[in-house]
Amino acid sequence: MSKPKVLVTRKIPEEAIQLLEQYCDVEINPHDREMTRKELLESVRNKDGVLCLLTNTIDEEVFEAAGKQCKIFSNYAVGYNNIDVEGASRRGIAITNTPGVLDDATADLAWALLFAVARRIPEGDQYIRDGRFTAWSPTLLLGRDITGKTLGIIGAGRIGSNFGRKAKAFDMKILYTGTKPNHSFEAETGATFTDKETLLKASDFISIHVPLSPATKYYIGDREFDMMKNTAILINTSRGPVINEKALVQALKEKKIWGAGLDVFENEPELTPGLTQLDNVVIVPHIGSATVESRLKMGIMAVQNIIQALQGEIPDHCINPAVYEHKLKK
């Protein structure tokens, strides 16, 4: 009996590929780059499952190209705003993601960005490399204190609350906002649930941890920057379009805020003109989950989702379980 056919749109950790190959006939993008649209549409044909990345736009055209036999698109990410979930549901295709396994890694990176901006680490590193450090000075590269300050968290879900728990070590006052209170988070950290405006005005550091949706696109723009302290630092490890990047560049240029740390961008991988010329922003290339351990766990989870779906089971991390409604009723 032949194995089901699966496409992997870009190479993932080898251990995950080896697991998938035990159950499936696997085709892997041979290039160390994102598939072009044409390559994707050609490669998904006649596949029973697809392991895709956040950088792949998965829409009706892709579903049509894949064919009626396709049962699952397994996203190698927590987010899934790259996928037309409603379109997949109409065709009976399961969509899955990889939640939980990258919470620590992403929260850790948010803290790394916060420290890097507050203490001007990249500037100091470049200062040394340029040979400009000739003597200690009491005014050299002055940054901002972190311990004892007010931390504002936008979105206290898995990653946001993980990030907030780590703030306890720095004796910080924690404010957070979102769609609803997180009482367990409050009990663990003493955090206070508040409205967006209060958080923006009171926080010394603001870290964003919300998914991208119509409600969160441009959650931070000109109006919000005007509310923030001119000593505030903004961190974003969620999704780029949550911030109006042009407004951010202007706010940084005009010193409306102290600085920013970004792992994600509005039109990734393109950056808004002027962003890279600013010293008061630290930018890294979407590496929130980029640890050996987290990327492997993501791969194993994405593969397990595919194996479960192709064996007729409901995947553990199915975003649209309604496609299995007939099975759930049994």
TrEMBL record:
GO terms for cellular component: cytosol. One of its GO terms (molecular function) is glyoxylate reductase (NADPH) activity. It holds the Pfam family 2-Hacid_dh. The keyword NAD applies. Residues 112-288 form the D-isomer specific 2-hydroxyacid dehydrogenase NAD-binding domain. Keywords: NAD, Oxidoreductase. Residues 6-320 form the D-isomer specific 2-hydroxyacid dehydrogenase catalytic domain. Belongs to the D-isomer specific 2-hydroxyacid dehydrogenase family. This is Lactate dehydrogenase-like 2-hydroxyacid dehydrogenase. It comes from Anaerosolibacter carboniphilus.
